[in-house]
Amino acid sequence: MFDHIETWIFDLDNTLYHPRARLFDQINTRMTRFIMDELGVGRAEADRLRGDYWHHHGTTLGGLIANHGTDPGKFLADVHEIDLSALKPDLTLAEAIRALPGRRIVHTNGARTHAERVLAVRGLTGAFDAVYAIEDKDLVPKPRAEAYARVTEMAGIDAARAAMIEDDMRNLEVPKALGMTTIWLCHQPGRRAEAFVDHRITGLTRFLRGLPRAGEDI
Ligand SMILES: [Mg+2]
């Protein structure tokens, strides 16, 4: 079923660690605080702007740049300055990723420093051949098609021989249209997969360990 896969593309947040770590809560709080400080507005207005920017620009940062000329580096460094003590090394996951036949890459909407910190704390540094962060995509996030096109081009990915693993189902619709095998890591029991999901899984390590391993003759 996965014999033809030569590139494994992993999302980062809530995929390479469990959402119970609640890192997004910290990032969201910092985004609101950043807008309050940057624009001199109250919390309610900052939250309203975040919703508005997300709706019209796809990300809070996109709205800040378009409307206020915000420095993206300053924003990304600030909002990702979070406490990672909820994360622990996961050597079983690291081993399962390293054992995958083919190339392993990360495609995240987060900042590069955030990705590197998370991978380090999870014991996953070096388990991937490349990490593509939001800065590598001209700040264009998944699920916009340009984000995937950018990574596909930079990494030289043959979509028909690539699999993408994501916890956010929306982010699998474009990969499926590109011809990738889509694997949805579902954290919500009972939630059904859309037609663009090829495989619905509930545990990443369990799924990976069930796959053929690198160098295994089958
Ligand atoms: Mg995610």
Gyration radius, to the nearest Å? 18 Å
CATH topology of the largest domain: Rossmann fold
Class from helix and strand fractions:
alpha/beta
Strand residue percentage: 5-15%
Helical coverage, percent range: 40-55%
Number of helices: 9
How many runs of DSSP E, i.e. beta strands?
6
State the end-to-end distance.
12 Å
pLDDT < 50 stretches: none
Write a structural description.
With 218 residues, this protein is of the alpha/beta class. 41% of the residues lie in helices and 11% in strands. The radius of gyration is 18 Å and the shape is globular. The model has no long low-confidence stretch (mean pLDDT 95). The chain has two domains: 7-17 and 87-209, HAD superfamily/HAD-like (Rossmann fold), CATH 3.40.50.1000; 23-79, Orthogonal Bundle (DNA polymerase, domain 1), CATH 1.10.150.450. The chain has a six-stranded parallel β-sheet with strand order 3-2-1-4-5-6. It has nine helices and six strands, in the order E-H-H-H-H-H-E-H-E-H-E-H-E-E-H. The chain has helices at residues 23-39, 43-57, 60-68, 72-79, 91-98, 112-121, 145-155, 173-178, 204-209, and strands at residues 7-10, 103-107, 130-132, 162-166, 181-185, 199-201. Residues 11, 13-15, 167-168 line the site of magnesium ion.
